[in-house]
Specification:
- With 212 residues, the chain is mostly helical.
- Helices cover 75% and strands 4% of the residues.
- It has seven helices and two strands.
- The chain has a two-stranded antiparallel sheet.
- α5 runs antiparallel to α6.
- The longest helix is centred in the N-terminal third of the chain and has 32 residues.
- The chain is elongated.
- The N terminus is likely disordered.
């Protein structure tokens, strides 16, 4: 038998070819396509970095809300939304690890600030927590929509798997937004000011997380 080959029955396969097939099959399950060049790689890494940061922050917000309202009648509803956010974060953790994408350096900041935002909004009562949810989820949904538009304009067939993930998560974020409105978010004290301030912070966090 020639060196570098394995024999299975009457067929002989190159071990190097087998390794290539295994790698190709593994990549077939990846959400991100293999980057064509450094520019595309940088774009995809920025997208995944900020999406991961957003889902991480959302998880910390719901953790803060649960710390205050977890034992109230609103607790199960917040827990349901938090469980969905946990699934989003787990998916982005997987994508980052699979594609060697560096998470933002600001995760420790989002850890603390997210929890404090969630807890402080919950201290205003159920309506305050829901107002925070509406503001945050609206910002995240708009961000996901901008990514969807960008990917669709470039090459929808190339980014099919990624678009599917983002659209699914966008729809669940919008579900949380609508739930917040149904739960009287607009009755929170200073609702419009609170919403504006939170969304301003979200936009700043998105811009910074893309770069750092």
């Amino acid at each position: 038998m020639l060196k570098g080959t394995v024999k299975a029955g009457s067929r002989v396969f190159s071990t190097s070819l087998m390794r290539q097939c295994v790698c190709k099959d593994a990549r077939a399950y990846s959400v991100l396509p293999v980057p064509r060049d450094e520019e595309e790689e940088a774009m995809l890494h920025r997208m995944m970095r900020v999406d991961h940061a957003g889902e991480y922050g959302a998880n910390r917000i719901y953790a803060g809300q649960m710390a205050v309202l977890g034992r109230t009648q609103t607790g199960p509803l917040i827990q349901h939304m938090w469980d969905q956010e946990k699934r989003h974060l787990a998916k982005f953790n997987e994508i980052l690890a699979e594609n060697r994408v560096r998470p933002t350096f600001l995760l420790p900041l989002w850890n603390i600030s997210g929890f404090l935002l969630g807890a402080s909004s919950a201290l205003l009562g159920k309506e305050g927590a829901m107002a925070c949810t509406v503001a945050v989820e609206e910002s995240i949904s708009e961000h996901y929509n901008s990514q969807i538009r960008a990917l669709m304009e470039q090459d929808p067939d190339r980014y099919t798997e990624l678009l599917q993930v983002i659209k699914e998560f966008r729809d669940e974020e919008m579900e949380h937004h609508d739930t917040g409105l149904e739960q009287n978010a607009e009755s929170a004290p200073g609702y419009w000011l609170l919403k504006a301030v939170i969304q301003l912070g979200c936009k700043a966090a998105i811009r910074v997380s893309e770069r750092l």
